[in-house]
């Protein structure tokens, strides 16, 4: 019994992958070529959007960028990126400086993971 509890505890502590491949496969109906194209586009887009968010000073434009990236992340199953984008939108709605470092970390985790899949 104690061993089973430890196994559950260890499993709970392990982080989910930065991209939900089951969700991706479902949305592409199992088309592996399409999955790879989507992963590669997201990898490029997420890095580009992060750079644009960092350079942009207009809060409205920043919200639009974060919202666009959030939608792409949700479609792909990149929950960490989507959550970080939501935090940015929330901060901007409150008139606060957005937490770009959290998004940078989430994008980095997702892109490193994607790199491991497509290389």
TrEMBL record:
A Pfam family this chain is assigned to: Hpt
GO biological processes: phosphorelay signal transduction system
UniProt entry tagged with the keyword Phosphoprotein: yes
Keyword Phosphoprotein: yes
Family annotation (Gene3D superfamilies): HPT domain (1.20.120.160)
SUPFAM superfamilies, per the entry: Histidine-containing phosphotransfer domain, HPT domain (SSF47226)
Keywords noted in UniProt: Phosphoprotein, Two-component regulatory system
Signal peptide interval: none
GO molecular function ontology, one term from the record: protein kinase activity
Domain HPt: 27-119
Domain of life where this protein originates: Bacteria
Residues with the Phosphohistidine modification: 67
Record's protein name: HPt domain-containing protein
Protein's organism: Roseibium aquae
């Amino acid at each position: 019994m104690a061993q089973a509890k430890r196994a559950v505890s260890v499993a709970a502590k392990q982080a989910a992958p930065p991209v939900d491949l089951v969700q991706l496969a479902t949305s592409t109906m199992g088309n592996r070529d399409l999955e790879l194209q989507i992963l590669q586009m997201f990898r490029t887009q997420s890095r580009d959007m992060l750079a644009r968010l960092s350079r942009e000073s207009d809060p409205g434009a920043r919200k639009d960028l974060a919202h666009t990236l959030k939608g792409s992340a949700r479609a792909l199953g990149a929950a960490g990126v989507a959550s970080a984008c939501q935090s940015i939108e929330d901060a901007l709605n409150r008139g606060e400086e957005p937490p770009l470092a959290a998004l940078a970390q989430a994008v980095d985790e997702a892109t490193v993971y994607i790199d491991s899949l497509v290389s």
